[in-house]
């Protein structure tokens, strides 16, 4: 849904990434909370910064009302005043001031920086005691909330990337729809054939704001080519050679063919609008976009991401519910709340209304999810991708890599640099910044 889409790369996202490291270091020195939060009736009040809007916010409010009925000794106060895009900055400011929330919605890629504060709680006991066995959660869900071997949050929204195709435009161009096993060269050729300048249609689209929404789409290509985000030893990027150049070459070819709709707006808003209006033939996206596509009455089909070697590699981007230690009573209540959110009934409501994939294999196999997935064409393709999906490294150096790589991607898409030159500049900047972080 579009509120989930905005979480992936809203207007403030890049500024948050730039500021995260310094704020995290300061936050790590903050004090230990704002008291017990127990009123005269013995009710523990905890503050939850939810970061949601529209449909997802309605789901949060419904869940909180259900929680209050079953847990009368705990009161949830919803707040925060910002969307998820601005949550890192808001939370870090709270840590500096010694007044963080009890629970906050944090992007998984930001979790390592938040974990530098001793107030971020260890949630190992929460995930070990849930009704759904932790080991049956998708690997991407578990890895996305684990920092240095410790579970520091619980999964909130789980997604993956695949390609959504406009069947009408494929038919008009006389093309067969792609399927499993297609390659990035196939993608480039298909985009070229789908492009019709007379009709104002493009083969595909790509965000070019330099934000995280721009960057995370590249990691499947990097991994497929044998590269890594961070090299072994954690002193430099792991894609400075062939993996990075070949991945950027894909975008360079699309740009040369003028078959890619380059969206300079954060979060890819214009790209999705162009797809919804029938002007883009295929777009790499996640399950959060399907409701908008269906509402636009686009006749679509979802297929796995292409690859270089015939086996699709994709990425998952878990968002998290993070808990902060504001005293024993509030910490216990906060752990109770996020543990309750993980239980099957609550998880199903949240997953279906907030645009998440099911967090675990048992949830995916359950009759309720199966029925729901059957009503949303293409949704099973995203879920099946979780079997092999990878996540961005949960490492505090990640923003130092994402920012210059986003600039490199944008330069290539706009024809302002070659892949080799853009990657070299990215490597120089990222490696220098990583050396300071370590």
From TrEMBL:
Gene3D superfamilies registered for this protein in UniProt: Periplasmic binding protein-like II (3.40.190.10)
Signal peptide location: none
Coiled-coil positions: none
CDD domains in the cross-refs: PBP2_UgpB
InterPro entries assigned to the protein according to its UniProt record, in alphabetical order: Bact_solute-bd_prot1, SBP, TAT_signal
PANTHER family xrefs: ABC TRANSPORTER SUBSTRATE-BINDING PROTEIN, ARABINOSE-BINDING PROTEIN-RELATED
Protein name in the entry: ABC transporter substrate-binding protein
Lineage: Bacteria, Bacillati, Actinomycetota, Actinomycetes, Kitasatosporales
